[in-house]
Amino acid sequence: xxxxxxxxxxxxxxxxxxxxxxxxxxxxxxxxxxxxxxxxxxxxxxxxxxxxxxxxxxxxxxxxxxxxxxxxxxxxxxxxxxxxxxxxxxxxxxxxxxxxxxxxxxxxxxxxxxxxxxxxxxxxxxxxxxxxxxxxxxxxxxxxxxxxxxxxxxxxxxxxxxxxxxxxxxxxxxxxxxxxxxxxxxxxxxxxxxxxxxxxxxxxxxxxxxxxxxxxxxxxxxxxxxxxxx
Length: 230
Prior knowledge:
By secondary structure, the protein is an alpha/beta fold.
């Protein structure tokens, strides 16, 4: 579903992503793991077309995206959940869910969203400003699922959440995976990453320096936790 080849990106003269290559197959959850400042968020923004100072190839569902703008990538089925959640603060939960257009063949209807995120059902008339950080995170994920996204790009969805909410996010990602929707996930929580993902790419100074499955992550857990500073 997603193939990235030789991706490099800059902020001015500073290169933050260096010749990165990775792939995500249908029905697979893949994580990008690395220290803060390793280039993970910039890489994700490049995939969504939000960062233009880049070179390399990004293919989605067999299509070379080239200079395609973000809104066209979204209409192709790329669902982006940024680290700042990006919800509409003055709109209600339900308005946030129904405003974006349906783009995929299998969008989640509202009743399914509310059954999977019961707290959003209770808050459906609340504006975004009245939601907690965890509720905003759930709304951001639910919104792209209601759009029928064919690929989820998630930037640290568990950051700052309670253990109970982290477990709920994990359940949702496993449900998404079971329905064949691939996920590329930035995640600092190594235990959470290995509980939901199939494979992991390790980024260091903007480079993909290693690719691991869960067995390899478990064998190197102490080393990886020390490297990540956790």
